[in-house]
Each structure stands twice: as C-alpha cells, then as structure tokens.
What we know:
The structure is a homodimer of 381-residue chains.
Chain A: E1 21-22, H1 32-38, H2 48-65, E2 71-75, H3 79-90, E3 96-101, H4 104-115, E4 119-124, H5 133-143, E5 147-151, E6 153-154, E7 159-160, H6 166-172, E8 176-180, H7 192-195, E9 199-201, E10 215-219, H8 221-228, H9 241-248, H10 261-277, H11 279-299, E11 316-320, H12 327-338, E12 340-341, E13 343-344, E14 353-357, H13 365-379
Parallel strand pairs in A: 1-12, 3-4, 3-5, 5-8, 8-9
Antiparallel strand pairs in A: 2-10, 6-7, 9-10, 11-14, 13-14
Helix pairs in contact in A: 1-10, 2-10, 11-13, 12-13
Amino acid sequence: MFSINETHRFFAPQLDVPLRLLLGPGPSNAHPRVLQAIAMPQIGHLDPAFIQVMNDIQEMLRYAWQTDNPFTLPVSGTGSAAMEAAIANLVEPGDVVLIGVIGYFGERLVEMASRYGADVRRMDKPWGEVFTLDEISAGVETHRPTLLGLVHAETSTGALQPMDGVGDLCRAHDCLLLIDTVTSLGTTPIFLDEWGVDAAYSCSQKGLSCPPGASPFTLGERALAKLHGRRTKVANWYLDMSILSQYWDGKTRSYHHTAPINSMYAVREGLRLVVEEGLAERWARHQANAQRLWDGLTELDLACHVNDPAHRIPALTTVRVPAGIDARDTAVRLLNDYNIEIAGGFGPLAGKVWRIGLMGHNSRPENVTLLLAALKEILGR
Amino acid sequence: MFSINETHRFFAPQLDVPLRLLLGPGPSNAHPRVLQAIAMPQIGHLDPAFIQVMNDIQEMLRYAWQTDNPFTLPVSGTGSAAMEAAIANLVEPGDVVLIGVIGYFGERLVEMASRYGADVRRMDKPWGEVFTLDEISAGVETHRPTLLGLVHAETSTGALQPMDGVGDLCRAHDCLLLIDTVTSLGTTPIFLDEWGVDAAYSCSQKGLSCPPGASPFTLGERALAKLHGRRTKVANWYLDMSILSQYWDGKTRSYHHTAPINSMYAVREGLRLVVEEGLAERWARHQANAQRLWDGLTELDLACHVNDPAHRIPALTTVRVPAGIDARDTAVRLLNDYNIEIAGGFGPLAGKVWRIGLMGHNSRPENVTLLLAALKEILGR
Lengths: 381, 381
C-alpha cells in the first residue's frame, strides 16, 4: 500500500450559489416543486416503484409533444446527448442526410451526422432566418436524403422554423424527418404526429423547468423501422436505442445502464406542471410574455433580430445590440448588479445580439418587468 | 393550428417513493447532505460561480483517485457514459485493444471497443476470479495492444483485480492502461498515479453516495498524448474530450454542452464527504463493514463467491445462494418486507449469487446488522 498523497485534499466550503434569475438560452430556473422532487430519496433503477416513475414520464411526455409514439423516453444525459442519440440511431455510414442549417444547432447536427459516417448535405440560411417549404422541398428533391434534420427552435438565433407541410414532403420522398425541439418543448406549439415528425429530441432545463440531466427523445414507427433494419450496429453504446429500448419498453425492463434516478424524478415533476397547466394555456402564456417583452423592447428602442414575430421563438428572443453598446458588458452588469443571466450571441451573431429566455416557470410578467427595468437602467434609455 | 390531443394528458400523483435501503450493486443511497446540495437553485453552466464548483470538483476528485492529472472531471452522464468516453477517446479504428474480462463490465468494454473499430483481443477468467500479473504480462506480450483495459472492481462478480506491477508492464510495452473504478472509487484503496494508470472512470452513485448523473473521468499525460495525436475525430461528439476539455480546462471555459448543473452540486458534496472523512479512514471503514458482513454470513452458513478475501471488493460482496433457495424470491422478500434492495447475479452467475453492496454512506454497521437479521429471518437459519 502506498502512502496517501494529501496534496489534493481540498476542504471545499459548503455549497453556496448566487440566486440567479436565469433569463438566458438555458438552463432556466427549475420550479421549486422540481427541486423538491429531485431531492427525494433514491430507489433502484430496477425497483418496481421506479418503473412506475418511468411509465408516468413516458405518458406525460407524449402529451407535451402531442405524439402517440410508444417509444418516448428521456435519454440519460443533457440535450446534446439526446441530439446525438437521434443521429447515432438513425444514421448509417453512407446515408445521405440533409440538414437545414439556420444557426449553431443545425451546424452541430451536420458535425454529428458526419461523425457517424453520413454523406451530409446541407441547406443554409443566414442566422435569424428560416426556410420556406419550397426551399425545403427543393433540398429534398435535389439530395434525396434518407433523413432530413431541421431545428424547430434555433436557440442560437431565436428563429422558429415553420413545420407545415414538411412531414408530407418527407413521406412522399421516403425520408425520415428529425426535428430539434430543445427550446420549443413545453413553450411553443408542437404537434409531432400531426406534423408527421419521425424523431425528435429536447432537453429538461428549458421549457420543462428542470435541472439539465435527462433529455426527452422520441421515435415514431418509421424511425423504428429504420433502427430495426440497420445493417450496422449503432456506433454509440450508451445511446443505442435498440438495446436501451429493452429497459424502457414496459415489459422486459432489462438492465442497460443505470438511469439518472433523481433527474427522472425532476422530469416527472416538470411534466406534471405541464399537464396541470395544460398545453393551450402554457403556450399562450409563453406567447403573451414574449409579446410583453417585445413591446417593452420597442419602447426602449431595441429591435428583435428575427423580423417576423411569427418566426420568433416565444421562449427565446434575440435582441440587436445597438451601436456603441458592448454586448458583453451589459450581460456582465445584469449578472453582477441584478443577478440576472442573459446571454450574448456567438458565431455570426457574436457581439451583435443578446439572447433573452422566458422559459417554462420563468415565463412570468414580473420577470419581463424586472428585466426591462434593469436594461433601461444599464443602457440609460 | 391543430387541436390539442388530450389522450396522454395523464395527471400523475405527487411523487411518492418507498424508502429503500439500497444494499445492491448501486445505486446506493445518497447522503442527506448530497440531497440537500442537489436541490440548490440552478446557476448557468457558464456562470463564474459554476466555474468555482467545477474547480472544486476537479481538485477533490484528484484526491479521491490519488492522481495529479489536470484532466480530471465528471462526464455528463452515468457510469456507462464515462466508460464509453474512455473508449471513444482512446481508441482509433484498427487499434489493437486488449481487455481483461473477469465479468460483465469487461464484456462491455469489449463490446464498446469493438463498436469504435478496435481490433479487440481478450483475456478471460471465470466470473469471480482475477488475473495474476503473469497472466496479464503474457497477454500484453502476445497481443502488443495500444491499450489494456482492466476492471479494477468487477461489480458483476465482486472480484477486485490487483494492480501491482501492471502500470510498469504497460509502460514497458508502450501501452495505455485504462481501469474501471466504478465500484472502487471512494470505497477501496486506489492510487492511480502510483499504479501508473493512464485513464480511469467511475460513477457517482456508489462510493460517492450521490444520485447517478455525473461520472468521474480522468486522463493522464500519456492518454492525452494519444488523444491529441489521433488521426481520426472522436466518433462520439457528446463525449469528445478534445473539445470538452476547452470547457473544463480552467481557462477558455467555452461552451460544448450544458453540464448537468445540479448533479455537479451533488458530486461536489459527495466529494466533500470523502475529503472530510479522509481516504485512509474511508477505506478502513469499508473494509471493516465488509468484514463484519463476511463474518455474519459465515455464521449463517453462507459462503462468499470470491474465495480469497484479498480479492473481494469491500463495497460489493457476492454471496453463493444455497441449494434449494430461490435467489430472486429472497431478494423480492427483502424488498417487499424490509425495504432493502439487494441484487441477484446475471450471466454465468444468474440464480447462483446475491450481490450485496455496502457503499459510501451505506457502509455502516447498523446496515450490516439489519441485513443479516433480515436474511436470517427469511432463510430461517
């Protein structure tokens, strides 16, 4: 036995975190009931009582996404893991995959699909714009992909991609439709089944008002057919839905990996809040508070980066930084002087926009009022 | 806009979980202080206050693992994600990888390495045994691997692999040494640097007494040289340490994916408990409570599956199921009548052993006394 090295025996003080109002692109503040749920005592991941927790989550997720998909579950990681699960399971080497890139998360889909060996084609729009159905149709006609990936709510730009007609188009071309709903689930109208979406993913720390850690994922029949007909194994063991499904299928519940138990408690509570409020009311609340923000920004002579209000994500507004203002300085002052977190832009929008989130529990009139008043003070308007 | 489908609007009741004593192979019960920490309000993953949380975790993890590795951090998933991170980052297609298989988790390393394109070679031992240094040496001489993967504490069998001399052997053959410490971190003597280990991973829900969700991972200099000298991109985006390192390096902190904030709070608190107790005391406590269990089992005329006590994991004991006893029935009665979770065996040990964990916070004399008394009642001994 060696002697113990005490060099790194660091006696950290008790955890003490600043009380931030998280009005950036996520994480958003967890609802107090969610924080109570996450602190409940653990049970085993194969305990019959946990199986009930899993069932509850699955059913409520179907409601939140408006889908009947039996294969609907949270992935054991944050939103990026759920995104990777979609690509890893639905893409085989050599598959032609078409990605609509309207911002960073489209770029990331391109990067992931390329790592899984896809023949990736892309359609691009300037950051802040969305595709028309004609543009998407032309892309699908040209590339004949096996999978079309679109970002429904592009968190890097604040743009909301209309989905009308895209599902029919994909079905007509025998192409799977995958959408990123990371910032839209629980905040913005989504009708996965009516839209003909075959696969989708999201996260827990935005519209569901949970800590990050377990991330919604769903596959419809056509996506499952692709998964079960693969010629190759999924190149990612942790996220392999062909084996993980045996844990979540409601029958075998056989061990794959240990689920993040307490994060599942949190997601369950976040979904209970969605169910209690009702989707219509929840979507209307997000829209109303977004409108309140947009109106207030106009009064401060600040402009939204996404011109058409119908193409703005109600839960995430990008605001143009006026000439002469340092975007980062404003965000730092909001954080240090008001305990409010907002974010800047990045990539082509670096220094050009702020990103303001009103997500889930945080989409409340008083938060809009506070943020606008703080911005007014800082900017001297 | 479509009309909202209310079919899946399931009003789940308030979360109410049974109060289990988790004495299986994990998860183990979280310490109450950890459950308080996990329920603290969120801050952003780029908040300066969170960077301090990250630094604290990294430093305390170095202590727990006895390593100076700067690259020491928790992966944003459960233990299997940390295992996959090791393989994904250190294996390139065509690499000869040698895995020592003494149970299920060695099998899983074989499976993962094969998915990442390795030329996988294996050494096998019956479940419950460990390799001698001579056997490992012969394997390395024969296969000349670029990476040797060993399971330090094989959770499926209860066997503890001695590590003396393995690091020197690997260095002499220019081979990286990767070890699985999922069940040994925080419970059993580990000296990563003294052992010459190049990469290791663990989990949060066993020796660290946290919920599952963020999983320790470390790379030494030689492993980092392999990572930075790769000819190919890491085939897993979420776990790509070449980009994730820019978030954790203490300097750039650039965004890769949203970290599971509250799970990090939990890991920080679990590590504080390790630091406060001290490794020597913690390891001695686990050994003493294991001995108490082994003595009590002997009194009940029950035998440990791993013969040599020096090769038993103090935190996880496999017990042979006596003839005429249904292993599952006993576990179900413990769960239903005593709220105690233990596990059975699987694979070659299915129906043949029980697996009893005394991990972290749960390694306490009163838990041993209760379990032995309950077993005595159930088995009528």
